[in-house]
Amino acid sequence: MGEEGEGRPPSEKVPLEKVNDYTWRIPKYKPGMRVPGIIFADKTLLEKMQTDRTLEQCANVAHLPGIYKYSITLPDGHEGYGFPIGGVAATDYNEGVISPGGVGYDINCGVRLLTTNLSEQDLKPRLVQLTNVIFENVPCGLGSRRKDFKVTIHDLDRLAMEGVEWVIDQGLGWDEDAEHCEEHGCMKNANPDKVSTTAKNRGLTQIGTLGSGNHFLEIQKVDKIYDERTAKAFGIEHEGQVTVMIHCGSRGFGHQICSDYLRVMERAIHKYKIVLPDRELACAPGNSNEAEDYYEAMACAVNYAFANRQAIMHWVRQSFQQVFKEDPEKFGLKLVYDVAHNIAKIETHKVNGEQRKVWVHRKGATRAFPPGHPEIPAGYRSVGQPVIIPGSMGTSSWVLVGTEKAMEISFGSTAHGAGRMLSRAAAKRRFYGGDVKRSLEQRGIAVRAASAVVLAEEADPAYKNVDIVAEVSHKVGIATKVARLVPLAVVKG
Amino acid sequence: MPKKRNFEFLEHMADAYIVAYGRDLAEAFENAAAAMFEVMTDIEKVSPEVDDYVEVEALDEHALLYNWLEELLVKSEINEMLYSKFEIFEVTKTAEGFRLKAKIWGEKFNPEKHPQKVGVKAVTYHKMEIIKEPDKTTVKFILDI
Question: What's this model's pTM, rounded to 2 decimal places?
Fold first, then answer.
């Protein structure tokens, strides 16, 4: 074990061919690989991936039955379970498979961004107060919940079927919010009958909570605008403008659904005689009952996560109202977009010149649809889909925009975040939660956290530089830079 | 009070990588459970006030470890409990695989008393190992956090 947590050495040497400065290819070097692997990274990011099993996992994913073109690893790629985090794989709708490992435990872990019409100066005198009020209003950390937001098991089924709309119907949100979410905040195929009682019980105690780990809520400002026309379309008007970012997922509800269906898929690979190099790639043929059950249960978790972020956003709006004693509408507080980072979808993509219906797995990846795509909100259709990439605590975050190039080379996907550089254990040895808080505060960033340990583990040197991740996405062209955001205040679990 | 701690945290990039030891499988599993709650809080501060029973079954020993830890995680979340003492009094081979029975002790989560560390999302099979030697069993596993 390296003192600075350089990760475990890869268990095998994965051959690589350079395509260009930002694209690398893993040839079909193992007999079971059906397609090659493609890595989008610069040399530094690639070298980091070579210190753990990221590339091996990329090659393993290339074994999935029905996989098209190549197994993709994005610039923020790092070792995950089965799939690398920062992985994309598309398989044929009929001949291919769907794998819960290609989505991950935190189904629809994702992020939403709000704009305000305030500038940094307007907020500054109230920043600490606002941060404290948000920390009071948004439950975060272990076992936290709001006393006034209880859902019954019957409500939970409705929420799982209707997503954001159900939360808005409860008075938590504005009608236009749903339009500005991926899938309009609701996957229609959700079926709560496919979700275990255990998952529902875990879901009941955690709806409307931020959670812990890498999840966070930040008040930010626009640091730099790179693409003015697109920024304007997204409501990003000027540098210094205040924004709010919410990053969390489907909590224990999604984790349990993933776990339950990994068991189902383990049986399925025996039943359908699917041979895989890793237990955690377990999957089922797209046209099987197992696949249908998983997809319907997964959609419930997707909707739960959209609903979760919707409720949290409502409490952020309320917090502005509490602090400024005026209607939240006065400050804008408009939802720019809500994107999923862990999801599987049925989409149509061009493969070898033909339109194909595919299962797209995005695990630690953001959909990045181009201008004109019917799936994106009308207001953004002339510029493309907003792509929101949160950085680590205390660093920058990015707004990018989806492109035609992403449709051509990455099944309409790009990166999702920074990706860790240091293990949690190494970060804890190097940093102390109290110091991390002080150093953020010295930079003028307000901090409230439920756990000092989380602060140390999430200290920003523990992460890859998100600016490089955004830069590689931009250079490759799978989502291009619109604006960079920097934090004014951080709320952590 | 909890038995002497017999677990360590290993290096892992994103998550908690744990090694736990015991004289036999049952003791190693008990220490694995203690380690999982040490990820979430300081288990020294969790009094063994309330007890509960756990029974899990699995096809193989890896799945038994997974199911044991997941059952504790589920109980902890649903009942808003933290656990600090674990006694596995039976691990039997059945026709379908294995069965584990245990008594566990802990108390209701209290943010005033229990320091908050990191929530555990899930148990995983990634790099899971169960190494049996004559007087020692070692288990390694990763928790997704």
Answer: 0.93
